[in-house]
Design a protein that fits this description.
Length: about 240
């Protein structure tokens, strides 16, 4: 089943602050919520709950749901789009399309940053721009869309919002860590060695810095999870080794 047309243009509620209204986000998602509290919850960062009375929720539960919905819909789409490919290549494509960097770019493309509710201090620190925060909010919005509008509405949004990264995949992407290991082995350098050099940020938005070493050469990656930081470090070193 093909998705609908291109994403609706982003209309901001306040042109001075750039804040996006819920109505504008509904237009982007392609759905008018019968339970608007789901959308509010999806746009509520954990930090925004400090000092509020009980009964309010952050977007973490909806993120959990949205993550599963995205995996299902993306797997379905990939199987349709690449009927001749086997599980390995489809898995690499899926891992890329649901990765934090891609999710963050999609979130930026729909203007999700300006719709997020965060604590004033976190806002001043630029939390809204963190890839992990944007990716989590996008998954939460998808979870809310699924719960309120069903799988068809969620599918339509995914196929519109991810059309560009999907089109960019002419060939299955290779896992950076696997590629680096193969290259290191081919050059007789031994296995890459990964180490966490630093961990910073609050518990709900951590940032890891990882260094990978092959022989005397190193690569560095920074991300909101150790696994993603390792992938970015491997990609960084691959650029060095290719130079």
């Amino acid at each position: 089943m093909a998705g609908g047309g291109p994403l609706e243009p982003i209309v901001h509620d306040n042109p001075l602050t750039g804040a996006m209204s819920h109505a504008a986000l509904e237009a982007v998602l392609g759905h008018s919520f019968t339970r608007p509290e789901l959308l509010r919850e999806a746009l509520t960062h954990r930090s925004a709950l400090h000092g509020r009375r009980r009964g309010h929720s952050s977007n973490e539960r909806l993120e959990f749901i949205g993550d599963r919905v995205l995996g299902l819909l993306m797997a379905e789409w990939l199987a349709e789009r690449f009927p001749q490919e086997q599980e390995g290549d489809l898995g690499h494509r899926l891992a890329h399309l649901v990765s934090r960097p891609v999710l963050a770019k999609v979130a930026e493309s729909v203007g999700l940053e300006s719709a997020l509710s965060v604590a004033p201090g976190e806002a001043r620190a630029g939390v809204r721009r963190l890839a992990t925060v944007l990716a989590d909010a996008l998954e939460a919005a998808l979870g809310a869309l699924y719960l309120d509008g069903g799988l068809d509405r969620a599918r339509d949004f995914v196929r519109r919002a991810w059309e560009a990264p999907m089109q960019a995949q002419e060939v299955p992407p290779k896992d950076a860590k696997s590629t680096l290991q193969e290259l290191a082995h081919a050059r007789g350098k031994g296995l890459p060695v990964y180490s966490v050099q630093a961990r910073s940020g609050p518990p709900h938005a951590p940032e890891f810095i990882v260094i990978v070493r092959v022989g005397e050469q190193t690569g560095t990656g920074s991300a909101g999870s150790k696994r993603q930081a390792e992938q970015l470090a491997a990609a960084d070193l691959l650029k060095v080794l290719a130079g």
